[in-house]
Write a structure and sequence with these properties.
alpha+beta, EC 6.3.1.1, 11 strands, 9 helices, BirA Bifunctional Protein, domain 2, 32% helix
Length: 336
């Protein structure tokens, strides 16, 4: 069962019904803390967008979006969002947000090409957030400050859950560490990117791995990033060491968004200058959109982390291969 890890002696500390209550406890508390830390207002967001707007997240460029035709609009094609990375920036302008203010929303997606395992599902649920900054504050210092704000919200949530659910013991370090993908490659030159993430996460407990998307000195990329939302020199992932599964667990991907210069440069690197003619990208290149920082935080991921679950299916309802479902149940893992 290569896609399913069963920790030795694993037994859920709370049953399904108690877990459902605990999921709401985690989500409600963290959502409030995140909004307070980053000065965010909750807004509604679309589940699907028209592909010709250029608003959908292209992720690594190979994932196929789920799409369908709308009968009343002459079967016009729409795509279920992969994330709201671009839509949020447009919404900040449209809704009249100003510098220092931001928004967040519940984002649900279907990623049909995802390889499922203990921490991956074809259903993705996250808080997508975005905040307006100035061009002058598009800096590493700004990025690290915001990362610390998000980490503060995570730390407060762990404390809250530990107090309410006594089987949960604190594991998060007092502070989050920072490292670039190049520094990681230099530290572990013979390791794969995922092995590097595991090594640094286990060493530090919590780490923000910066500068994801561009080529490293080896010529390889640490990981892929779409060229038209994050600035690859000013982004990163929050990675936690998760002892239940002995893995590096990514809880959030975030970054300062591209400006006119970095968008053009990254589109050229990826060989997709044709995107420059799409409405969103064209508006950005013309300087019509605010400068922002933003990201996504996995809702099921943090519930899994804080409730010390062994499988993401214990905190979200999705569809799994029959053999995985049967093996999980046989080993005491109750999938929702």
């Amino acid at each position: 069962m290569k896609n399913l890890i069963i920790p030795d002696g694993y037994q859920p500390a709370i049953d399904i019904r108690q877990t459902e209550v605990a999921i709401k406890d985690v989500k409600d508390f963290f959502e409030r803390e995140l909004a307070k830390e980053l000065n965010l207002t909750r807004v509604s967001a679309p589940l699907f967008v028209k592909p010709e707007t250029g608003l959908n997240d292209n992720l690594n460029g190979v994932e196929r979006p789920v799409s369908f035709g709308i009968k009343e609009q002459d079967d016009a094609n729409v795509e279920i969002v992969h994330s709201l990375a671009k839509w949020k920036r447009l919404a900040l302008q449209r809704y009249g947000f100003t510098v220092g203010e931001g928004l967040y929303t519940d984002m649900n997606a279907i990623r049909r090409d995802e390889d499922t395992d203990n921490i991956h599902s074809i259903f993705v649920d996250q808080w997508d957030w975005e905040k307006i900054i100035t061009k002058e504050t598009r800096t590493v210092e700004t990025l690290q400050t915001i990362v610390k704000n998000v980490y503060n919200a995570l730390k407060a949530t762990e404390k809250f859950i530990c107090n309410k659910y006594t089987y949960v013991n604190p594991i998060m370090p007092e502070e989050i560490s920072f490292i670039t993908t190049q520094e990681l490659e230099d530290m572990y030159p013979d390791s794969t990117p995922k092995e590097r993430e595991y090594n640094i996460a286990k060493l530090k407990g919590a780490v923000f791995i910066m500068q994801i998307g561009g080529a490293l000195n080896s010529g390889e990329r640490h990981d892929g990033r779409a060229p038209d939302y994050d600035d690859w020199s000013l982004n990163g992932d929050i990675i936690m060491y998760y002892p239940v599964l002995d893995i590096a667990l990514e809880l959030s991907s975030m970054g300062i968004r591209v400006d006119e210069e970095t968008l053009s440069k990254q589109l050229e690197i990826c060989g997709c200058m044709d995107r420059a003619e799409l409405p969103f990208q064209k508006a950005l290149l013309n300087g019509e959109l605010p400068y922002t920082i933003g990201g996504g935080i996995g809702q099921s991921r943090i519930c899994m982390f804080f409730l010390r679950k062994a499988h993401i299916g214990e905190v979200q309802a999705s569809i799994w291969p029959d053999d995985i479902s049967e093996y999980a149940v046989a080993n005491g893992i109750a999938l929702l």
